[in-house]
Amino acid sequence: MNVEDFRRLYDYNSWANRRTLDACALLSEEQFTRDLRSSFRSVRDTLAHIMLVEWLWLERWQGRSPDKFPPATDFPTLESVRRRWTEIERNLIEYIASLKPEDIERIISHKTTAGMPQAAPLWQMLQHLVNHGTYHRGQVAAMLRQLDAKPVSTDLILFYRERAAAQAKA
């Protein structure tokens, strides 16, 4: 993959995150925080996890290694998740936009939240983060079905088709 591929992939990731948040907008506060006995207990907790992992990896890429996440309870409503995520997304997209071809081969060293040292090429971490979000957005879709709410498609091909249609109109 090259830098342009990553920019496109992170545009997709932002698009998919926003669609997922929008799909959650009709949930009541009780539904949003209901324990559904999934990997993370609720829709809120799963969304907060996706969001905070994006923050964590960006911190690592910028030379910091946070040792903990803020708790999901810091984000009691969908709007509070959306507000924080908008800020994280802006910073993440700015970071991706600033990358030069040689940057993606750079080895990034960091510590896990448990304090264990790790290192990998940036390109692997960049791929991982988008894949991680895709996995957990799928969990949110399943949780929405459990709550009798309607999930939305966040398939990559749909993103490409919407983008092509928008460009054809322009």
| Strand arrangement in the largest pleated sheet | 1-2
CATH top level label = Mainly Alpha
Cα Rg: 17 Å
Number of separate structural domains: 1
Count of individual helical segments: 6
List keywords for this structure.
globular; 170 residues; single chain; mainly alpha; Four Helix Bundle (Hemerythrin (Met), subunit A); two-stranded antiparallel sheet
Describe the structure.
The protein has 170 residues and is mainly α. The longest helix has 25 residues, at 122-146. It has a two-stranded antiparallel ribbon with strand order 1-2. The protein is built from 6 helices and 2 strands; from the N terminus they run ααααββαα. α1 (3-23) packs parallel to α5. It is 62% helix and 6% strand. It starts with a helix and ends with a helix. It has helices at 3-23, 29-33, 43-61, 78-98, 122-146, 156-169, and strands at residues 107-111, 117-121. β1 and β2 (117-121) form a beta hairpin. It has one domain (3-169): Four Helix Bundle (Hemerythrin (Met), subunit A).
